[in-house]
TrEMBL record:
Name of this protein: Phytoene desaturase
Transmembrane domains' residue ranges: none
Keyword Protease tagged: no
Oxidoreductase keyword on record: yes
Length: 495
């Protein structure tokens, strides 16, 4: 087993990827310190508490439980050592704006019946689709996610080619789904998970149909206390392994080289042997590193396709909201215009598709008695003008939309309200153009086409998080932490 005993590491940023990397490196014997610019750990997966209400600020879907199980098993632990899970039923509810309502439940046979109501043969098509999705998931995870293939020649290997045979590698999700379902609503149901990947049906590779296996077969779960509770568990594991955390301590510069780095912070200098950055990749390169140590120039970051930003409302309301499920989607019958207004013609969406999360439907501890906690997330283009006046207008529009299409009147019952949008993502997370997620999963930004874990310009500097492989999402960032740690151990570990 390789050891980093005697080595010191500073991890910049306490998002999921940074917390996971810290665990692996500390377990290998390194002296690990995590510094975080904000007041709490978790990065985008932090939480907000106001007057007895508790909200996940970002990720709120607990998907891919197998990834969490594998992560904790690497340290001879299980998720249940830290938190309990509830299998949600329904997984989620969809309100189409023409009046249709669909519940997707853990009962696949019932879901097939729902599909048949929209299109003859769609139930059998769903079964075939999920078989393909499961195959893509199992092969993709084992051979292309947990194994980080960073060079083109890695994909030319005969064994790799054999494993990849039959995977839906090329084409778009739109084309792939159209091969199974004609009805546009069924296509939307199969594609909604693209929101978690920061893409649209037209620009996301068909490979990501594997997300349907995650959704329909592995299920949608809720950790007591929210996703932030799962993040707290990762941080607690780090403490058990000896990781030290400093919040409210931003990095302002990275200087030096491996063995003699200098990380500058307002509270003083840190002098680690190695550095891992979980801060946004572009921010690290453009703002923290000197020009001669950057792997990419400003033109590179300007040319990338970014995942959406978001307009978020965190609402504490009086009474129940029984019309809404724990996870609720509100979708226009034609959502192409909304995606166009994110990726092609950036503007505030006229007829938005959006998501409403009501954790108080499952967890009594996230809201005071007689109240409900919910948040609303509207994907919007990064870089949009974001003023208090625009936020107020859009807030009113969304509350009216919710009332019209779900039958849930919220406006006169709100007792706690917070808003979060483009400027907040940029300021709180140093995210490029205020993107909520980072680099989108387009074909040219997937796998080896994402920025690498090893810095291209500074030996001993590594990157982790959604901008690297395998990509966006809490489970992917957990895996990113493992992959980054593997790179560090390969380069500096000792027998």
């Amino acid at each position: 087993m390789q050891s980093l005993a005697g080595s010191s590491v500073v991890v910049i940023g306490a998002g999921v990827g940074g917390l996971a990397t810290a665990c692996y490196l500390a377990d290998a014997g390194a002296d690990v310190r995590v510094i975080e610019k904000n007041e709490q750990l978790g990065g985008r997966a932090s939480h907000l508490e106001r007057d007895g209400f508790r909200f996940d600020m970002g990720p709120s879907w607990y998907l891919m439980p197998d990834v969490f199980e594998r992560f904790f098993a690497d340290f001879d632990r299980t998720p249940s050592d830290y938190y309990e899970l509830t299998h949600l039923d329904p997984h989620y509810r969809i309100f189409f704006k023409d009046g249709d309502q669909v519940d997707v439940t853990p009962d696949l046979e019932r879901t097939k019946e729902v599909f048949e109501e929209y299109e003859d043969g769609a139930g059998e098509a769903l079964e075939r689709y999920l078989e393909k999705s499961k195959e893509n998931y199992e092969v993709g995870m084992e051979h292309f996610v947990y194994e980080d293939r960073t060079r083109l020649r890695d994909y030319l290997d005969l064994d790799v080619a054999r494993q990849a045979r039959g995977l839906s590698l090329l084409g778009s999700m739109q084309g792939h789904v159209e091969g199974y379902f004609d009805h546009p609503k069924l296509q939307q149901i199969m594609q909604y998970t693209l929101v978690f990947l920061g893409g649209s049906p037209k620009n996301t590779p068909a490979l990501y149909n594997l997300m349907s296996h995650v959704d329909f077969n592995l299920g949608v779960w809720y950790p007591d206390g929210g996703v932030a509770a799962a993040v707290d568990a990762i941080a607690d594991l780090g403490r058990e392994l000896g990781v030290e955390y400093d919040t409210n301590r931003p990095a302002t510069a990275i200087k030096g080289r491996e063995g003699a780095f200098l990380v500058e912070t307002p509270e003083g200098q840190l002098r680690p042997d190695l550095v891992v950055s979980n801060a946004d990749y572009a921010h690290t390169e453009q703002d923290l590193l000197p020009p001669e140590r950057r792997g990419y120039d400003a033109d590179y970051w300007e040319s990338r396709t970014y995942a959406p930003s978001a307009f978020l409302l965190y609402l504490g309301v009086e009474g129940e909201v029984d019309e809404l499920a724990h996870h609720t989607l509100v979708l226009p019958t034609d959502w192409d215009e909304h995606f166009d207004q994110i990726f092609d013609d950036p503007q505030w969406p006229d007829d938005p598709a959006y998501y409403v999360c009501v954790p108080s439907e499952t967890d009594d501890d996230v809201a005071p008695d007689g109240h409900s906690a919910l948040f609303v997330l509207v994907p919007i283009a990064p870089g949009l003008e974001d003023t208090p006046e625009i936020r107020q207008q859009y807030r009113d529009k969304i509350l009216e939309d919710i009332a019209d299409y779900t039958g849930t009147a919220l406006r006169d019952r709100i007792v706690v309200e917070e808003r979060f949008c483009v400027e907040d993502f940029a300021n709180r997370y140093n995210s490029y153009d205020g993107t909520a997620l980072g680099l989108a999963h387009t074909l040219r930004q997937t796998a080896l086409f994402r920025p690498p874990h090893r810095s291209k310009g500074a030996d001993g500097l590594y990157f982790v998080g959604g901008d690297t492989t395998p990509g966006i999402g809490v489970p992917m960032c957990l895996i990113s932490g493992e992959l980054t740690a593997e790179k560090v151990l390969a380069d500096y570990g000792r027998e």
